[in-house]
């Protein structure tokens, strides 16, 4: 199976935690509903492959690197401290709107 379609609930929750993203923010970044994110993370049913791809791409665009060291491995790029700053800037823009 293509690795773009592989994303476990644990990986999704961990990546959200690394980025300090809410489900709402991830849904917006992946252009999906919050319910789709909840379905993946709660394991209530298997999400469609194109939804998993969209979620994974949102994480990768934010700097999350998924490794092949195991089914639940993920890592931040070395020396990347811009994720937290980016998140604060996004929150500020949201309040102004």
Structure description:
There is one protein chain. Helices cover 58% and strands 4% of the residues. With 97 residues, the chain is mainly alpha-helical. The protein has one domain (3-96): lambda repressor-like DNA-binding domains (434 Repressor (Amino-terminal Domain)). A two-stranded antiparallel sheet has the order 1-2. A hairpin with a 7-residue loop joins strand 1 (65-66) and strand 2 (74-75).
Keywords:
two-stranded antiparallel ribbon, mainly alpha, 5 helices, globular, 434 Repressor (Amino-terminal Domain), 97 residues
- Give the neighbour order of strands across the main sheet: 1-2
In CATH, the topology is named 434 Repressor (Amino-terminal Domain)
**The CATH architecture:** Orthogonal Bundle
Number of strands: 2
As a whole number of angstroms, the C-alpha radius of gyration is 13 Å
Q: How much of the residues is beta strand, in percent?
A: under 5%
- What CATH first level would be assigned? Mainly Alpha
Task: Spell the H/E element sequence.
Answer: HHHHEEH
Distance between the termini: 41 Å
State the major sheet: 2 strands, antiparallel
* Count of DSSP-assigned helices: 5
Low-confidence stretches: none
pLDDT averaged over residues: 79
Output the structural class.
mainly alpha
What is the number of independent domains?
Answer: 1
Range of helix content: 55-70%
Q: What would you call the shape?
A: globular
CATH superfamily: lambda repressor-like DNA-binding domains
């Amino acid at each position: 199976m293509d690795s773009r379609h592989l994303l476990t609930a644990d990986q999704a929750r961990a990546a959200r935690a690394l980025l300090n993203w809410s489900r709402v923010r991830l849904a917006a970044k992946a252009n999906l509903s919050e319910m789709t994110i909840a379905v993946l993370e709660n394991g209530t049913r298997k999400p469609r492959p194109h939804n998993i791809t969209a979620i994974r791409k949102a994480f990768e665009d934010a700097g999350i690197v998924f490794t092949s060291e195991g089914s639940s491995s993920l890592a931040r790029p070395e020396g990347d401290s811009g994720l937290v700053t980016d998140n604060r800037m996004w929150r500020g823009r949201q309040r102004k709107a």
